[in-house]
Amino acid sequence: MNFRxxxxxxxxxxxxxxxxxxxxxxxxVDQNSSLxxxxxxxxxxxxxxxxxxxSISETIERAGEDLTHSEIGRRVGAAKLLGKYxxxxxxxxxxxxxxxxxxxxxxxxxxxxAEHASNxxxxxxxSLVEKIYSKLGDSDVEVRREVSAMIPRIISVMxxxxxxxxxxxxxRVYRSVPSKMRSDLFEMTQRAFLDDDAIVRQNILxxxxxxxxxxxxxxxxxxxxxSDHGVLLTALSRISSSASQTGIVRRVKELSMHSDKGIRLxxxxxxxDANRYHSGYRGILRDMTGDSDPEVLSMAxxxxxxxxxxxxxxxxxxIKLFLLGVxxxxxxxxxxxxxxxxxxxDGISVYRSLTEHSSSKIRTIAWQRFISLSDGWxxxxxxxxxxQDRDKAVRNAVLNVLRGRTNDLTEAxxxxxxxxxxxxxxxxxxxxxxxxxxxxxxSVGFDLLIDEDTIVRSTTIRAMSVRRVPGWIKILSxxxxxxxxxxxRAAMDGLLEDKEQGVPALKKYVTQxxxxxxxxxxxxxxxxxxxxx
Amino acid sequence: xxxxxxxxxxxLIFVTFSSGQTSSQSKDGxxxxxxxxxxENSIRRYPDALPSLLKMMxxxxxxxxxxxxxxxNSFTDVRLLENPILYINCDEQPNLEFPKEExxxxxxxxxxxxxxYLDAGIKASFLGADLGHSYAAWEERPEVKELFNQVFPEKxxxxxxxxxxxFRTFFRGLPKNEDLKIQANQKRLPExxxxxxxxxxxxxxxxxxxxxxxxxxxxCVASPICAMGWGRDEFGAWIxxxxxxxxxxxxxxxxxxxxxxxxxxxxxxxxxxxxxxxxYSENGQRPLWVKEPNxxxxxxxxxxxxxxxxxxxxFYSRLGMNVFLYALLH
Lengths: 533, 330
Known about the structure:
The complex is a heterodimer.
Chain A: H1 3-19, H2 31-40, H3 43-49, H4 56-66, H5 72-82, H6 88-97, H7 103-118, H8 126-134, H9 141-158, E1 162-168, E2 171-177, H10 183-192, H11 198-211, H12 217-223, H13 229-236, H14 246-255, H15 261-274, H16 280-288, H17 294-306, H18 313-325, H19 331-339, H20 345-354, H21 360-373, H22 380-383, H23 392-402, H24 411-418, H25 423-432, H26 438-449, H27 454-467, H28 472-479, H29 485-496, H30 502-512, H31 519-528
Antiparallel strand pairs in A: 1-2
Chain B: H1 2-18, E1 31-36, H2 49-60, E2 65-72, E3 85-89, H3 100-111, E4 115-119, H4 142-151, E5 158-159, H5 191-201, E6 210-214, E7 217-223, E8 244-248, H6 253-259, E9 265-270, E10 276-281, E11 289-291, E12 297-303, H7 306-329
Parallel strand pairs in B: 1-2, 1-3, 3-4, 4-7
Antiparallel strand pairs in B: 5-6, 6-7, 8-12, 9-10, 10-11, 11-12
């Protein structure tokens, strides 16, 4: 046994009992006299009377003495105070207090040790850490809870692998020794899976893999029947190692009919992941497509679709109705919404229905998926309704899908875009001039040139200059006279692209309007082309 | 009583929203919460908090909220006036400095009947840049004070009394085992924690709120950060974990803590009674202990664990729902 640990556990309390030194023997301060001295301005006397704070070592030493005091309250106070001083010394003192007969002291000591751990102080002595961990078997539930919650913080020391030196054929060989939990602690951990307290059970379930302690199938089966929801959820996420066993499949099947929706949703997730271990899980998912809750039903159905199973039309209809009825996006809705693609042709009709959902986020995804899956950009009647969507984010998402894909828009189609009340749609109309039919450009070009929105006008000017529409030099030259710099700039850029007619027109403008805002920049650009003005 | 509230909430929502349909409201008449997000691409600590809370309200009450908040980046956004409740997580904003036109728009919104919930509108100075902590101070943070001095120079924030209707609009009292979905005989919290929570931290499920009245109506409330307690994962489990800061006393602490080694700084924090606590804090550590105005000293202890976190989440969610339902009903 570690000698320091021996002293701590066995001798320290004994020495403490002998000593019984009251802590903080501070001389009483006479308030009246001190006040009088303040009035007199005798500051040096005040300094002498005001008790000074002790040093860290003094504080720890006194608290350590208090830990062995006969009064429980004094021991509790010392254990609490030591949590504020992180050092190996205080950790040793607190570990010593874990064997106190009073659960209040043990609780306070454990909370202080947890405080050290959460502040980054690691107890490096393995025997001390094992002592802390052994309190998982404490009679007090609060102590057990604290220890079980501390596992991630103490595990590195407790499960640290070692090194040994052996002689092989006369040569010293260093070799590693794998970490191994003490057998009594191992057994205690296995018992803790079925602890009386649900929080302890849950924590052990969460952390047993860190400890290298396997979860026996019999314990898992019991935990899958636990009355605590937290334990059930954690147990469900731990079935992978025993997923192929019939007893576990049976329990998961029973849980697929649990009254709590969260548990049933977890079952869907678990059945999906465990599908590779046992065919029964696929059957559970199929049964769950008949769940009374549309969300659970939808989750189960889309998981089956992802496995390549054909989902019956009536189930697809239920998924559609569920999605139409949700109030907005959530993690589950997002999962289902994206997974609808796996339904194939049926999924397209679901997305189409959702383009009228009240949630803008759902409409956005529905429009994107609907257009992509149905090659919707080829038929303006499919995407044109999105141009009337009240939410800019939805329109932008659809426009991003369409950009570069819509060719040869007709006059009627362009007219619809030009007459749209949203400027972002009209900007798209102006951009579409680049590859629309000529008669359509002739028809709507003027409307776009006099649009109230500057970006629409400038985009139109740029499109016209690229297409070289009849009379474009005149349009761009007049646009140089516009008050708006953005328009002037678009016109200048367009004219600079044509050396034959555009550059002379720009040169003429600069000569006639030397003080215009755009003239300085135009002069520089012309200079770069070797034209001096 | 709860039945009546169900009816009242349903009725009010129907009356409020059946009359008109505007572009930013949901088609189905559900209430849409407006959330201020001045920087769209900023890192958000609790992005799922508000949608989670709204979903819970739809599940647990007859109120009908759109679970997608409407994000705006300026008070001058015309859509603000189309929706009755504005939620601002003050920790998610780059700052709380707004140009004059935005201040005017905010004033106009509140005068027109809008309700503003300033989450993290209270933040004790010792918390610094640490966004994951909540502390029951009883005055608005300085940035909020400065902003509202400009928006409503004639008004100040007043602490909400513990018996204010806001704390019992729908949910009453602290979470029970039943609310936490745990066995009836299971210990909810460690004894020291439960005693402090019930008597001091959140008595009768109240918390430190300050509010401002406009035209006789409570139009704005500020609280320490509550959003951290609203998140649920897809299976209904609470996220992220929350721990508790508890004040504890022990024999001789009034003497011991006064003299115990300490080399850090101290901070004053306003209490409910207007007096000041002195918080003792060391760099890089969570606050150590507190000297209370009555001369007693108590130590801060920190408790974490599944049960603590679940309890805190249940409390913050019930409180958050009460705030939004209060805003809807008043």
